[in-house]
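hey so u asked for the seq, here:
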Amino acid sequence: MSEPASVYLRPAALAGRHFSSVIVGAGINGAGVFRDLSHQGVDCLIIDKGDVASGASSAPSRMIHGGLRYLEHGSFSLVAEATHERNLLLRNAPHLVRPLKTVVPLSNFFGGLLSSMVRFTGIAMPSKARGLFVVSLGLLLYDFLGRRQRVMPSHRIERVARADGSLFRSSVRWTATYFDAWISHPEWLIHELVEDAHRDEPRSVVANYCRAIGCAGKTVYLQDELTGERVSITADTVVNATGAWLDRSADALHGAGSRVMGTKGSHLILDHPVLRDALAGRMAYFEASDGRVCIVYPFLGKVLVGSTDIPVDDPDRASTDPDEVDYLLGVLRDLFPTLDISAQQVVYTYVGVRPLARSTADNPGGIARDHSVVLDPPNTTRHVPLVCLVGGKWTTFRALAQHAADEVLQQLGRKRRGSTEGLPIGGGAQWPADEREQQRLIGETATRTGLAPARVAELAGRYGSLAHTVAVRFAADGDHALAHTPGYSAAELTYLCRRTGVVHLSDLVLRRTLLAIRGQVSEASLAEVAEIAAKALGWDALRLRTEVQACALLLHEQHRVSLPRLAAEQHRTAPDAPLSPFIRPLPT
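ran it, C-alpha cells below
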C-alpha cells in the first residue's frame, strides 16, 4: 500500500525553507492555530521541543466543560464561550468527545450563599460548602449560557436516590444533575487537527523534538533535540503557543516576558471496580473540605480522580508529589466513606501545568481562566511580528486559535476564507450520531474485512469514520491480537509508528495509544510494543534497549507505574547484557 506524504518532518528536511507562519508549541492551542491557518491556505510550520501533545495538553482532567465554578467569579463570557465550544466539540468530534452526566452532592440549602456573593464582586473570601440554592442558581445560569447548539438535557435537582444515599457521605440530602462532556483521547484529537491541517494545506508540516533557539531578522533558528543539529528557516510571522513555557519561549524569540504563571494539576487513575460501577457512568463534581472543587468519574474501565492546583516555577520539573496522592485519596474517602480506597489501587498518575495569566492572587483557584492574544511587534533584532497566546482552556482551544489566526492573517495582509466552527475533526467527519447507524457501519466493515465486530467497534472508538480505512489496512497486514498488549495488533502499532511522528517508545505508549493511562503497561507488554516499534522504525538492538529503559524510567518516576525488573536494569551499562526475559535481541 503506497504511503501518502507524511505531515511529520525532521528539522534537517526544513533547512532553508520559508513559511508564512511558524508556530512554536504543538499542544492543543498551537495545533488549533495550525489547523485554522492551514484552512485559510496559509503555509505553516508547527514545532515542539518535545512530542506533539506532550505538555499540559496531554494531561487535562479529560473533561470538555464550560467551567461551572467560574460563574461565581463573574466570568460569564468565558462560561458562555466554553459551553458553546463544548457543544461544538460534541458535534465535530463525536468519536472522541461524548456527553458526561454529572452529579453534584448537596448537604445543605443556603450554604455558600454569602461567600459566593462576595467572590462575585471580586473580593477574595474563603469558600464555604455550596448548598442547594447556590448550585441551583448556578446551573440555571449555566444552562442559559450554554444554550447555543445544545445537544444535551438541562439540569435537574432531586432528593438523593437510595443507591446514592449509601454511596455518598451521610450528610448528602440532594443531588443536582447536569451534563458536560469528556474526551477519551485528547492527544489523538491533536494529531487529527494536525492531519486535517496538512490535508487542507499540504505545505503545512510538523517537526516534533525541534526547539526554537532564536530569531534574528526573518530567520528562525531551530535545533533538532535528537541529534543537536541546528538549521535555519525564514518566516513572515511567528506564533508563541507554548502555554506555561510562554515566557521562556518569548525570551528565545526576543519577545516580552512575565505574562504567565503555572499551576500544576495532578490526577490519579484508580483500578476500583466497585467505585466505577457505583458511579454508573456519572461524574461526581464535589467540594473537598478545603473548598477545592474535585472530580471523579469512570474512565475507560478505571476511575479518574482530580485534581490539585499548586503554583510551580518550572513546568519541566512538575510531577505528582506523594502529598497530592494522599490528598486526592483523602477527599475520595471523605465523599465515599463506606468504600475501601487505598494507594494500592492507584495504577497511574499524571500532572499538567495550567498556563494562567500572571496574577498576584493568593488562591490559584481564584485566578481567571480567560485567554488573550498579545502582539509583540517587530523590534531591532526580530523583524517579524510575534503573536502570543496567553492562558486558555482545553475546551476553548478553537476559539482562542481563531482569535490568534485572525491576528496572524492581519499581519500577513490576508483575509479569512472560512470559520472552523462547523468543521468536523478527523474521524468525526461523517460519523453518525445515531448508535444504530454506527452499528450498521461497524457490521459492514466487519463483513468486508473479516475482523470481529468487537474489534471494529474498538477501532471506531479510536478513529471514528476513519475506522473503515484503517480496518481494511490492518486486516491486509494481518490484524492479530498481541499476547500481552490488550486491544492492539502489530499492524495497528506499526501504522501508528510510521504515520504519526513517533520518535520514542514513550510517544507510542503514553500518547498514540491509551495503554499507559489505562494501567495496561507491564514488563511483558512494554517489551512487546518495543519490539514492534523497533521493527517499524529501524532501531538496532542498542536503541531498542535504550528506549525500553527510558520509557520504563519515565513511567516509574512520572506516573508511578512499577516495572521493577526493568527499573533495576537502569543501572546496567553493558549494551550486550540481557535486558529482560521478555526482550529478544534484534538481528543486526
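The chain is about 35% helix and 20% strand. The first strand starts at residue 18 and ends at 24.
lmk if thats what u needed
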